[in-house]
Amino acid sequence: MMAATAARSASTSHDHALERGMNDIDDLDDALSLDPGFADRFERDEGRPPCKLYLISPPAIDAGFAETLAAAIDAAPVVAAFQLRLKGIDEHRIAELARPLQAVCASREVAFIVNDSIGLAKRLDADGVHLGQEDGDPREARQALGPTAQIGVTCHDSRHLAMEAGEAGADYVAFGAFYETGTKPTKHRPEPSILGWWSTLFELPSVAIGGITPANAAPLIAAGADFLAVSGAVWNAPEGPAAGVRAFAALKGMG
Ligand SMILES: Cc1ncc(COP(=O)(O)OP(=O)(O)O)c(N)n1
Ligand SMILES: Cc1ncsc1CCOP(=O)(O)O
Ligand SMILES: [Mg+2]
């Protein structure tokens, strides 16, 4: 019994050492700087659909927000997804707030994505879930939500995390924050070239997020972002959210 336990613990520590070694190699991969011109050496895949908008909800939802959301989506045929991202609120309350927003999205064929919680996504029968690195495993989400669910994963500025997410069955990988943002504190700041690297090597769509505005989005679209995830620049747009969406829609490469 003791011998078996010792053998098991020896093999476990061997496995851990091996795993640590593999992680070191992957971390090294991220540490090796990416040639900013990497993607320029390859032809762009002209078959890739134009870049779309992925709206992230404002941090608080007021009574008229369903109408605001509808007007924003209707402003231009460029909104592919809406993420309900509410922090510090009880899940029952989020579920109540979600229903009318989910109906707005469903009637417009906009994917309704729940942030953070696989359980809430399941309860709402949402189109998908967005998982941060601490929010759960994409495999667990797939198991719970089924084959058609859209599962997104935050990958910060890491090629390694993105490849891991792809292997785990994610439907998109999200890189960011590309720019300063007042929406949340951020510590990772990728270069646009990570989007070019990703789209050159992989078909899985990429999402760019973090402080994106109509004025700074061009390099992200040109680099190959499949989606721009935007909160502040739409909901706080000086001439209103619909005008904010139109300003993104007018950019080259959006459609
Ligand atoms: C599309 C998209 N990308 C990244 C995030 C950030 O997710 P996470 O790292 O879990 O941080 P929080 O949003 O939970 O604060 C996202 N929500 N959506
Ligand atoms: C949720 C999130 N994750 C990284 S930056 C960010 C905030 C996105 O909002 P904004 O478009 O207002 O910067
Ligand atoms: Mg999260």
Automatic annotation (TrEMBL):
Entry note: cofactor: Binds 1 Mg(2+) ion per subunit.
The enzyme's E.C. designation: 2.5.1.3
Classification via InterPro entries: Aldolase_TIM, ThiamineP_synth_sf, ThiamineP_synth_TenI, TMP_synthase
Pfam families linked: TMP-TENI
Entry keywords, A to Z: Magnesium, Metal-binding, Thiamine biosynthesis, Transferase
Annotated Low complexity bias: 1-12
Substrates-to-products reaction catalysed: 2-(2-carboxy-4-methylthiazol-5-yl)ethyl phosphate + 4-amino-2-methyl-5-(diphosphooxymethyl)pyrimidine + 2 H(+) = thiamine phosphate + CO2 + diphosphate; 4-methyl-5-(2-phosphooxyethyl)-thiazole + 4-amino-2-methyl-5-(diphosphooxymethyl)pyrimidine + H(+) = thiamine phosphate + diphosphate; 2-[(2R,5Z)-2-carboxy-4-methylthiazol-5(2H)-ylidene]ethyl phosphate + 4-amino-2-methyl-5-(diphosphooxymethyl)pyrimidine + 2 H(+) = thiamine phosphate + CO2 + diphosphate
Annotated positions binding Mg(2+): D116, D135
Single annotated GO MF: thiamine-phosphate diphosphorylase activity
GO annotation, cellular component aspect: cytoplasm
Positions annotated to bind 4-amino-2-methyl-5-(diphosphooxymethyl)pyrimidine: Q83, L84, R85, L86, K87, N115, T154, K184
Residue numbers spanned by region Disordered: 1-20
Pathway named in the protein's UniProt entry: Cofactor biosynthesis; thiamine diphosphate biosynthesis; thiamine phosphate from 4-amino-2-methyl-5-diphosphomethylpyrimidine and 4-methyl-5-(2-phosphoethyl)-thiazole: step 1/1
One GO-annotated biological process of the protein: thiamine diphosphate biosynthetic process
Thiamine phosphate synthase/TenI domain boundaries: 53-234
Family stated for the protein in its record: Belongs to the thiamine-phosphate synthase family.
PANTHER family per UniProt: THIAMINE-PHOSPHATE PYROPHOSPHORYLASE, THIAMINE-PHOSPHATE SYNTHASE
Function: Condenses 4-methyl-5-(beta-hydroxyethyl)thiazole monophosphate (THZ-P) and 2-methyl-4-amino-5-hydroxymethyl pyrimidine pyrophosphate (HMP-PP) to form thiamine monophosphate (TMP).
Name of the protein this chain belongs to: Thiamine-phosphate synthase
Gene responsible for this protein: thiE
